[in-house]
Fold each of these.
Amino acid sequence: MTAPRDFKYVGTRPIRHDGVDKVTGRASYGADAAWPGMLHGFVLRSPHAHARIVSIDTGAAEAVPGVHAVITGKDLPETTATIALGEAAIDLRDIGDNVLAKTKTLYHGHAVAAVAATTIDIAREAAAAIEVVYDVLEPVTGIDRALGAGAPILHPALVTKGAAGPDAGGPTNIASRMELKRGDVDAGFAEADLVVEREFRTPMVHQGYIEPHACIARCGEDGRAVVWCTTQGPFVVRDACAAIVGLDPANVKVVPSEIGGGFGGKIVVYLEPLALALARKARRPVKIVMGRDDVFRATGPTSGSKVRVKLGAKRDGTIVAASASLWYEAGAYAGSPVGAGAMCMLAAYKVPNFFIEAYDVVVNKPKVAAYRAPGSPIAAFAVESVVDEIARELKIDPIELRLMNANAEGDRAPYGPKYGPIGLAQILEAARAHPHWRAPLGANQGRGFAVGFWFNAGMNSSATVTLNSDGSAAVVTGNPDIGGTRAAQAMMAAEELGIPVERVRSNVGDTDGSGFTDVTGGSRVCYATGMAVIRAAEDAREQLRARAATIWNVSKDAVGWENGRAIPPAGTEKASPMTVAELTAKMTQTGGPIVGRASLYAPMAGPAFGAHICDLEVDPETGRSRIVRYTAFQDVGKAVHPSYVEGQMQGGVAQGIGWALNEEYIYSADGVMENAGFLDYRMPVASDLPMIETVIVEVANPLHPYGVRGVGEVPIVPPLAAVANAMRDATGIRFTELPLSPPRVLEAIEAAAAVPVEA
Amino acid sequence: MDPFRFVAAADEHAARAAASAGARYLAGGTTLVDLMKLHVERPRTVVDINALPLTEIAETPGGGVRVGALVRNSDMAHHPLIRARFPLLSQALLAGASPQIRNMATTGGNLLQRTRCYYFRDTSAACNKREPGSGCSALDGCNRIHAVLGTSDHCIATHPSDMCVALAALDAFVLLSGPRGSRVVPLVEFHLMPGDHPERETAIEPGELITAVDVPPLGFATRSAYVKVRDRASYAFALASAAVALDLRGGEIRDARIALGGVATKPWRAREAERTLVGRPPDAASFRAAADAALAGARPRAHNGFKIELAKRTIVRALTRAGAMA
């Protein structure tokens, strides 16, 4: 589709399809299900960050009246399978060990046993009666300790994968090392007039979804199982549960509940295999709901990091060389998003010579999970801070400098492929032309600018569009709706069928009721699953044309289609155009029900860029800062439902601001997380944020019939650097460690003021 | 949450009768229920006192105000008498928690708020306040949020209330009713320093019920301010806060009130600092001298030393704001 299309529904803002159920409390979330005969599960967790499990005695717990089942790691089989997952493969042996420790506990909060009982209090009491003997080991509390001499080793059998590192061979905490390179980096730096090098650090942070993990599972004597849970990927849950618990995936049905946020953190399983194993043992349904402290301690945040970046530029601003080293914490098991960070970090810039090395480092903290553009915000924080320094040193406008070096269609991305049409220059120009960029700043205020990149994903999607006899339609896909995808899918089906969007009901199917569909993640749903919905609606429309041909007794090819009506060929006697409703009213007589269906694999998606302007005011007496104005520009390809697109952009910015200013996992020297609650793990609240302004830029993605690009992840990439660059502008201080919390800022301001003048 | 017996008391007598050992009164529930969920509070009986007629705000002779124990924080904060006569108290209340919590939290409950020390709230950690004799994890732990004033070798947890800081500055009284009749305790004596017994937090005796708070008349409280410094704009406890009032006449400070929050083990009245202000002009030097005096006895631990200077700046800012009032 090359000519711009005149849309009727796409680009409008109908009332959200999930709205009424949510605001009236009718929507059923993970913890809302209750089944007859249900037991309550409680998970016993390790008080030690690193320990060998010597023995577990569950006898006393099993003897507690009301207890129906107790499980430990011994109740789960060993598994070695993996699940492919676009952004990161899931190693099921690690996941199996993560959901229930087998021989070692690798972080504070690591599950070691689970109990099912008639009440949650009995389950908790019984769990307390389980005797676990630990051989406590020294914890690896961070990257420096993990790589240091004589570091404790988490996994004695771990071998560094990928390009051999300097310490490859012996026991190691480096799970993998990768390299990306182009050109001659030494020659590049030799050519540079200015070289800036900095080292950055960020702490572990959590997605902070409001709904905690929760599930209920049952397993019959025939081995057939049903799991209801809050998840971004019901098919992942199905396959992971089957492998970890030892069931045939064909016998496991997963029903996704309404979901209260995920941001990547609800792709892997935590409670589901435990509920299923308990249910199998107890022969009763088992429900488990996580507390907030366990969500923080035992589910997957994103990595803490150390990133060293060096950029070289000519006097005119041309970037000629880059080198970078990235170390990301994987948590207890391999699999940080450091590779993605390395691939994203230079995505915006034409850099002829670069060398990037990336290390995945295991530490005694929870196993990290995906978090919105996994790996990219950390890398962008480092690169965009250094680009800001170059702009300052060379006295070039930061947007100008980026425009000068911006990649465009046909340029080769640092991670390999050639870019198709991308909107980087367009968003930079939109930012430069925006009144925000020239607005005056007040006292103690500063302005920061940064760009960010995400690949976006395609992968597998399926959809059906069922027509009802009254001309309405029902869409079913396998993607839990986090960001408004039901509304977008209804709009796409309405667009293709030519029926009002209110006449399309959009549904999330379970693993038996929908075709195989990959996770709600990678900003892929509106793009790839949306494409499946469009094709399924086209399929239904073609069937409608065939029915009209039958009624008119003409060939299908002769039937036209305009504005939701079948048009008879010219000269057909007594035939006038028929609407969808008129055609579906005759479905039974013309061949039976009409179900349009489509499934597809999209190997690629349209990558996307965002550019953010942040104004910040700092109180020099307390170190507290306030974001006073924020504008986000993003190439979204085509905004199907602009309100949701703006909401995604604002949500990403809000999370990014929290990451930049206040959020951090605080660990004691023993590896115990000290701030496992929303009060002390400080996400921004409404009063911390200004109205976040959004500017939608649409550079059509040729891979999608409407031009859609993924939207949800890009907006969390620039804020870390945009905020830090604003802080640099306001205080004159370059902060290289997050968060920019008041005490850290105050200390730096005081230290800068106290620099003695040389005599 | 652990199982408990629930009693809805119809009147004060029934409430006290039901309040046997191991019982807790339930008012707004914003502290109690929270701590019950964490298994820090494990009452055997919960006595709901919300039906008691303690919801009045009334004027007292001479220009004071009596606030019933069940008056919600939001109602007190927005009451015309409180706003007109004791702006620092209204500001302190509005600086606390979130609108939803303020709509539930009560005056009496606020007086009994428990500390937000991480280790008090984590039942797997040692805490002398929660489990006397078990030790204090905060002394050498993550003590960035902990107290620098009024600490002991057994506890360095801060008192979390904003309201109590303003009440300390205002010389308020707590009215108690118990099996041996009623009594009145000055607010500054109501909360106890941790000393050797951090588990004893208030002067309240077993079986006693808070019925009201008396705020005595203080003419110059109209020139007052509450300044709270915290990590984010709302839903955060104070790193440092100051409630101040100034009696300014003829370009000179005749009297002053200063109380601190977020830095001490109880709502902290800074009398020495008040004395340094008397007879001085309301300028930066005077305010700074008062701030230095207020923190003179501060004892930092590894991660909370920043609070000393931060508290001083908070005091100076509050005094500057009060001094500049028309």
Note: The two ends of chain B are 51 Å apart (CA to CA).
Amino acid sequence: MKIVVVGNGMVGHKLLEEFADKPGLEITVLCEEARAAYDRVHLSEFFSGKTAEDLSLVAEKFFDRDGISLHLNAKAVSLNAAKKYVETAEGEQIEYDKLILATGSYPFVPPVPGRDREGCLVYRTIEDLEAMREWGAKSRKGVVVGGGLLGLECAKALKDMGLETHVVEFAPRLMTVQVDDMGGALLRKKIEALGVFVHTQKNTLEIAEGAGVGVGGRHVMKFADGEQLETDMIVFSAGIRPRDELARSGGLKMGERGGIAINNFCQTSEKDIYAIGECALWEGKIFGLVAPGYDMARVAAKHVLEGSSQEGPAEFQGADMSTKLKLLGVDVASIGDAQGNTPGALSYLFSDGVAGHYKKLVVSADNKRLLGAVLVGEAEDYGSLLQLALNQIPLPEHPDELILPAREGGSKTGMGVDMLPESALICSCNNVSKAALCTAVADGATSLGALKKCTKAASSCGGCQPLVKQVLDSELSKSGVLVLNHICEHFEHSRQELFHLIKVAQFSSFDEVILRHGKGRGCDICKPAVASILASQKNEFVLKPKLASTQDTNDYYLANLQKDGTYSVVPRIPGGEITPAKLIVIGRVAQRYGLYTKITGGQRIDLFGARVEQLPLIWKELIDAGFESGHAYGKALRTVKSCVGSTWCRYGVQDSVSMAIAVEQRYRGLRSPHKIKMAVSGCTRECAEAQSKDVGVIATESGWNLYVGGNGGMKPRHANLLASDIDDETLVRYIDRFLMLYIRTGDRLQRTSVWLENLEGGIDYVKQVVCEDSLGIGVELEGEMQKLVDTYECEWKKAINTPETLKRFRHFVNSQEPDQNIQFVDERGQIRPKRAQEKQLENAS
Amino acid sequence: MTNEQNWTLVCGLSDIVPNTGVCGKVGEAQVAVFRIVSPSGEEDGVFAIDNFDPRSGANVLSRGLVGDMDGQVVVASPVYKNHIALETGTCIEDAAWSVKAYPVRLGEGGIVLVQGE
């Protein structure tokens, strides 16, 4: 079958993907542009550094396959439907059995005198972008005509080029179609705050010669209200019109205002000619989004291949025009009947003038179904709300809770993905249902990346990504409930259960625990977990022979293993306070052993590149100078960061450094489910960033505020306030209790932030246990902590004084040689490990 | 110390802390030698594999934690935690990260001998 496809835009290319590798097809693709399909949805990223190649949608070697030939720069100019051929601008006639028109649209330029002036551009193709870039470089000021979705995208492009950017809109508000008046007003405010000038209700009458570049502008725009705006360049982005001239030449049926009329199979008035995407008119409507276009491509491809004789053939049934975008950094989303045009429709509004959020729900007259929504400033709930609307899911009793922010301690009612039916379409761009996602997860796609790759969900516009992630998480937790609870294959217990079992039986070695409660030999999961529990209860030297073999890599050598097999060394610097003499010692040691030095985020100094046999020598010198182990290698207390506090700072209200040192001295060496970071700030300005730590202390006029459960890193979390205005003694007591509660009940490698999030009752429960002693275990928890404080000893001091332990610190058991594979080169005056390629080069020469 | 069948004395068995490894120089090769002891205290043998971890490109396998996975005795690379079966040198996660296993035996007086290439 000879198939001719006119147009290789996003939708045209989707069609080709549907056809790819189907036998018996001879496909000719005519593409007017100089390059094959690229991503127009993310076009503005061209200005934030993406290249034309980055935007390409063509898979590697896609056009190398047999049965498909791509003609670039080949514009089809006429169509003969009777004789079934199309003619190109070069005069070539190409015959078809089936013709698919995917000619897309062109930007509408209002018929304003002067619109042809130099520097008046449009925003559609990569060539257009190149022209914009060229003009941008010689302009100071730019105007976008059109305040819709594309117009604002375009404004971002001008802004990214550093131009003074203006948006001129005919209607009274921005994004007329998608948002309502209040949403539009907030959007305007936010965009203006970014330095973009917005002019609404402006009817442009003429574009004329301006005063000149650098004086006023190349052009002057004259508006109906008598105002004028001078500018150096103008980009029209005032809507699209279907490219239908080819279809016209073939005598196909057209809509009154253009567009190629199609039926539910995307057939035009000629049964062997199909039209898809923005050139097609279905029930009087043009669909200017990519998802409906893709849908048409699938329907047309299926129909071409299988005909209409099939039972229940796929039909195009219109499309949901809901959309979520980030415009100039502002989240905007619009769902269904956003304007509330449905008879009897009611609405809920939430507006947060402080945070700049606006949310509106449009619900049915009986308050049972969601008809539409507008979200401006924050659109995280777009995916769930869209699903509520699309699947006609009954609303909760108080629908307003869907848009009201969750208050501290409470959890948002919202809706989980579990409520969605299997058939729910999660990714409308690529037609991926919830069922398809679930199947893929069950088949082994257990990461977001893998799931996106194998289902293509969230790989086009990306709007559904949060929802895809939720489905993934929900499926994983459903299938993994038992696995997650059991620490590994050797124990059918969670860490919390093991902690309890070990405590009750007073075990003191891994072997005792596994013989009594587990099976097999153990592994690299359960051994360190048990070792950590034993350390939190008994606090014995971790490198004792009976404990040594169960320690995690870093604990085993009391240093942090780096990628090349060397270690890093971090001496403790409590509160980040250090004398010049001690600084000199660190410098001298680093110099002597040729170590790379770097200041850490926790206010101490990391020394890299130590060979295993150098560790005891380095530590001997450090300990002789009064340093101690920093436990940077352990799942243990790391640092207590501090600001200078009232001692030096004009604003400090308490001595944060002294408090930080006291806290760090108290909890140094404390082993826990994961690392623990703390900080103490001397006033409310919070220079020590205590609210991003597991335990954060902030000075007040009359004492301290204690925060817990904060985190930076991969998933930042603001800490919760546990107690306010407490004195020194209460502070320490509460931290004792909090930490021991966490150590007792936390999961393996679970930071306090995640622990707190998963703890039933959350921060309120912790407050009750720690501050009100609701379980009556306060004294017990304090006692356990005091025991650990009393039994602390510096592990490195112990190690260098234990000959048996020192034997471990050499590379070869039968030779004094160092590991020849460890090699360094110089970079910025320090060492760095040689890269694999550098080693290979050397071996080759 | 190497004899004609290329057996190299690496160390005494008691030089290896139970359920840990050491690195021996066997000819020019670096060999990780592990001493496996059951939780109830029986000696379950010694194993020898390359000390080089192909995944990280570092000579570190002797410093990994040993254990068992589905009944196989394994070591977890201390760098990226890929597991290698001590008997065969096969990597459980990806065969591309497998290493060579060496013949190893206990000699008289509790010495550990590894056969080099």
Note: Residues 44 and 52 of chain B are 24 Å apart (CA to CA).
